[in-house]
Amino acid sequence: MEQLDRKPDVGMSGPLFVAVGVDGVYARTGLFEQVVESLSTCISQRREPGTEVLRFPPVMSRAQLERSGYHHNFPHLLGCVSCLEGDEATLRTLANRPDWPEHLSASGLVLAPAACYPSYPLAAARGFVPPEGLRFDVASYCFRHEATHELGRLQSFQMREFVCIGKPETVLAFRKRWIVKGQELANLLGLNHRLVPASDPFFGRAGRLAALSQLEQALKFEMLIPVRSEEDPTACMSFNYHLDHFSTVWDLKSEGGEPIHSGCVAFGIDRLALALFSTHGMEPASWPRTVREALALSACSPISPHS
Ligand code: ATP
Ligand code: ZN
Ligand code: MG
């Protein structure tokens, strides 16, 4: 693969991101967004038939997230929406206090930590899972209270996912197909990639055991692609098998009583876009022709920061 002589300037401030005063939270420039949109289209083109498209807002039901067990497994990453409550006089008084944040109370909303969480209760509300299973194409802005903010580790980022709910063999076949499709996509985009077994960043000592068991059972694979460096590539896609976790939580059943499992494949859209800039340079107009064609960028002229 063609390599750049010099590592391009893919920084947290500059041509791709504009700082907005908080680490890990950035405004995206037109240059970055153009590539994000092209990537999203490229992924949509690979959507399997019979997949229902849903776009979720960046917030979701706190009750649903609690029922999924997220606050036990990942309390360190969770962000909740809190509001001031009261009549006009109370709100006026509270807003004038320097310690006003102390008076916030938790609302019924949390910030979505992954795009797929609302899919499972939504499927459960529809009754039995059909014999062929259910497939969703979902996306949302996600929030994670990350401990570090290196390049590619954002607090607020865009996640695109395909979700499958069905018989164990249906879900495993879905994940296998998407691992191949993911690798084909990375090849087409000229991105160096490596598939590795992975685990989720579960909290605490019990979490380390959960992570080990996840590794042992090969429940999660990540596709690593260079963003910061070749030596320390970044997880840009993940391929997840949840066994019966969500189907038990949401009582997802088949009519015939066969077990129901779930899985999801997640694309870190911001990381994939960063990987493209990091690999091919800061000017999409001079990216390899095959990459521009895959992203349908060929007709695009380079865009100025203010266009
Ligand atoms: P990591 O290993 O980097 O901590 P993760 O294993 O927690 O990520 P997943 O939960 O599998 O990630 O999320 C799906 C995808 O979302 C990841 O493969 C990645 O591309 C993207 N992603 C996750 N966390 C972030 C983040 N903080 N900033 C940007 N993208 C992220
Ligand atoms: Zn998911
Ligand atoms: Mg990971």
What would you note in describing this structure?
- With 307 residues, this protein is of the alpha+beta class.
- The protein has a domain at 30-60 and 113-294: Bira Bifunctional Protein, Domain 2 (BirA Bifunctional Protein, domain 2), CATH 3.30.930.10.
- Helices cover 32% and strands 24% of the residues.
- The protein has helices at 30-44, 62-68, 70-73, 88-96, 119-124, 168-188, 204-216, 245-249, 269-280, 289-294; strands at residues 17-22, 25-28, 52-55, 59-61, 80-83, 105-111, 134-143, 156-166, 194-197, 220-225, 234-241, 261-268.
- Strands 3-7-8-12-11-10-9 form a seven-stranded mixed beta sheet.
- Strand 10 and strand 11 (234-241) form a beta hairpin.
- Helix 1 packs across helix 9 (269-280).
- The longest helix is centred in the middle third of the chain and has 21 residues, at 168-188.
- The chain is globular and about 60 Å long.
- The two termini are 32 Å apart.
- The model has no long low-confidence stretch (mean pLDDT 94).
- The structure holds adenosine-5'-triphosphate, zinc ion and magnesium ion.
- Residues 114, 144, 146, 152-154, 157, 159, 200-201, 222, 235-238, 266, 268, 270-271 line the site of adenosine-5'-triphosphate.
